[in-house]
Amino acid sequence: MTSKRRRRRDPLWARLLLIFGAVLAVSSGGTLVAARTLVDKATDSITQTELIGGGTGAAAAPEGNNIDGAVNMLLVGIDARENDTDYRADTIIILHIPETHDQAYLISIPRDWMVDIPPHDELGFPGTTAKINSAFFEGSKFPGSPLEKRGRGTEVLAATLTRNTGIEFNGAAVIDFGGFHSIVHALGGVDLCITERAESVHIGVDPDGKLVKGWYNDQVYPPRMEGLPPGSKPLVHEPGCRAMDATRALDYARIRKDLDNGDYGRQQHQQQLIKAIVKKATSSGVLTDLGKLNELVKAAGEAFILDTRGTPVADFFFTLKGVAANDLTLIKTNAGAFNSAQTASGEAYEALDALSLEMLKAADEGTLSTFLIENPQFIANSR
């Protein structure tokens, strides 16, 4: 990665939070000066770098970063452990905002979708065909700092989505689960509605009722959680709406084992968590509490990597201020049903059906709102 690619500091989930927070400050009667002060403070604390464009070029929206029309942002979640250099995109979401700038859609991309990963001339990567969560790994496997690896991974992933959907991106953001935990903790937790019973594979409860960490061993059959103290049991999330702390909320959003819809269930839970974070971050209890707001900004600054492709965050804020007036709409591919397929060698993967590809084309062409009116089965339960 060349030096010109390191512009500022970190990611997109943070921007999603902080922009929406600042937007609500204005819509709730805050002054324009106060809103700009909040945005500037948030921007200073967030790591920003070039995540798309560069060597592949295909992923970046043409003619600079024109956000006057429809806007597409790439949100990438990675599960990066300490001293881990093998990065894969655990969560891939497209944030789509139509030309009217009055609505926001979250489109989750299945991690097992088989795609063409394009070559990257600068890295000497020849391209391949693989599951889409491998695209981030293919870019990040080359030598470099953690920031450079995340940048290359996002760049190859964005180019892969452009190759397979036509969607070009106005920006991108990366966050790992540790960073997400910091954000939710700074908010004092979030309110979530559990839609189905889910048993953790990462967190247990000891005999005294305290949460303890375990680890998921998928090298044995059947796979199981290990490393819990004697007498501990896996944490179980029972159906119902409740306030959840950061550990429980993040754990619930990561579970896919034994869910009725497998990874689609997890995608929906992740979308619900993002929505809950935005709702909590834009609540008056956060915006009017200077201490909590400062803690949130600090947590965001340490958690995210962001690329707005040179457009000041404040410009995004003022251009997209109408989004805050409406709800986030959660979108699922294949209408939430796993579409299993196999390669010639017998490798299982997920294929997107023709209507899902049409939905992504509608996002590319700025007609997603019309598509969803005609195909409401693609809208996920937003509770």
From TrEMBL:
InterPro entries: LytR/CpsA/Psr_CW_biosynth, LytR_CpsA_psr. It holds the Pfam family LytR_cpsA_psr. Residues 88-282 form the Cell envelope-related transcriptional attenuator domain. Belongs to the LytR/CpsA/Psr (LCP) family. This is Anionic cell wall polymer biosynthesis LytR-Cps2A-Psr (LCP) family protein. It comes from Catenuloplanes atrovinosus.
